Amino acid sequence: MTCDGEDATHAPRPEVTELRPAAGAPGRAAPGAPDPQQLPRDRSQAILEAAKQIGALLKKKGHPFALAGSVAVYAHGGSRHLQHDADFAVLPEDADAVAATLREAGLPVRTPPEDWLVKTTCRGQDVDIIFQLAHQPVTKDMLARAQCLPVDSVIMPVLSPTDLIHSLISAFSEHYCDFGSVLPVARAVREKVDWNEVRATCGGEPMPAAFLFLLERLNVIEPREGQS
Length: 228
Known about the structure:
single chain, alpha+beta, Beta Polymerase, domain 2, five-stranded mixed sheet
């Protein structure tokens, strides 16, 4: 899905006069160090700023994509306490073109040992460009289901809640089953998810099935129809 239109704007805030230390005074940044006045308020804001810049860049170049991961959860109304990076889903056949766009913008591109993503760094934050979610390639249908939502102040395609939950719980296995990190996500978006679709696509696997059972027992979701 593509998102047309200008970035959202906010009403200007009145200027506040601040006292700043004189040159050489204690607390003043050393030459070459980042100006504290220009730093984001916190780590979550820094990740948001990186996601906004990458999203705006991909939009400008016309690459099909969708925001994923914890920033996508935030866009759907979840917690603003973001995880360690920003994630974007792109088509496998577009991976090289997206990497070229990032390089043209002056961003570094790294190819990790995993063969399902490339990595970049933006505003000091890690950004993953993913072309395979939970062992399944990103598809045109998946991107078509993405919803255009404001991410802080930039409108961009965001994975649908159903695809987002599917990608998270399909990744569970005997070697990775951190239910605790996904439970708050499921609570945040539960009313927006097609749980029957999630059950049909991944509920037959042991770990996803166990997580769905946990959600039922905690009254996060309704039990499967016909199940008492």
